[in-house]
Design brief:
115 residues, 7-stranded mixed beta sheet, 4-stranded antiparallel beta sheet
């Protein structure tokens, strides 16, 4: 299993960024996937999940209405569209897939939001 994030960078408050996670080594369409983030000095937190059942999604309260998660099963890519960015969105963002008791993570991509 390999997960590689891209698309991070510097954005202004109120701006937008789109993150992508390219996946390989497993049947992408068969698994739900998630985005997590970890800010300096804080624990890693769940941002959004896209399940493989009925296309249902979950968002943390802090990002609901601003972020959109989507899965492209054809291209084996997970996306996170982030709009109306806030300074508190600054963090390293990680792509995740859970297979039974094993969690797989990408190396992460840094998102920095500045005023």
């Amino acid at each position: 299993v390999q997960l590689v994030e891209s698309g991070g960078g510097l954005a202004e408050v109120g701006g937008s960024l789109t993150l992508a996670c390219s996946a390989s080594g497993f049947v992408f369409a068969n698994y739900g996937m998630s985005w997590f983030r970890q800010a300096p000095g804080k624990e890693r937190e769940l941002v959004a999940t896209a399940t493989n059942v009925g296309n249902s999604v979950y968002y943390a309260t802090s990002v609901k209405g601003r972020f959109t998660i989507s899965k492209d099963n054809t291209n084996k890519t997970l996306y996170l569209d982030m709009t109306s960015l806030k300074s508190e969105d600054t963090a390293v963002y990680y792509c995740n897939v859970q297979m039974g008791t094993t969690a797989y993570w990408g190396p992460g991509t840094q998102v920095t939001v500045s005023a």
